[in-house]
Amino acid sequence: MAEETSWTEDRLELLRAYWDEGLSISQIGERLGVTRNAVAGKAHRLNLRKRQSPIARKPKEVAEPAKPKELPLRLALRGIEWSRSKCVWPTGDPKTVEFSFCGKSIVPGKPYCGKHCELAYTTSRDGS
């Protein structure tokens, strides 16, 4: 970009007009054929009114990413909630997204609820 070294009255009027229109410093620089730093410096020396930063003017809205309806199984299983105080008896097919754990309160010292402890811990009473 060829930079004009002198600020003529015509160029200063254009700078003020573009500034009042709300053009960005870079846009003004492009139109006047100077760098954005030249525009910023001249605007400061001319005591042109300060403008809010374009970054602050457009605050980014933090939106929660949309969850796809059908996640790959390995990702869907990451969403399964479990805790050491909840029954971890598996329910459903582990190859599908419907897979989960029982989730009821456990029997102290065991990983399962009472119902699932009965199923998991069996002893043979007939001696076989």
Draw up the topology in text.
Elements: H1 9-21, H2 25-32, H3 36-45, H4 54-57, H5 73-76, E1 90-91, E2 100-101, H6 114-120
Antiparallel strand pairs: 1-2
Helix pairs in contact: 2-3
Could you explain the architecture of this structure?
The chain is mainly α and 128 residues long. It has two domains: 9-57; 73-120, no CATH class. It has helices spanning 9-21, 25-32, 36-45, 54-57, 73-76, 114-120, and strands at residues 90-91, 100-101. The mean pLDDT is 81.
Key words describing this protein structure:
128 residues, mainly alpha, 2 domains, two-stranded antiparallel ribbon, 6 helices, 2 strands
Total tally of structural domains: 2
Task: Supply the helix-strand structural class.
Answer: mainly alpha
Shape: rod-shaped
Strands, count: 2
Order of helices and strands: HHHHHEEH
Low-confidence stretches: none
Number of helices: 6
Distance between the termini: 92 Å
Largest sheet: 2 strands, antiparallel
Radius of gyration: 34 Å
**pLDDT averaged residue by residue:** 81
Strand content: under 5%
Question: Short description, anyone?
Answer:
The chain has 128 residues and is mainly alpha-helical.
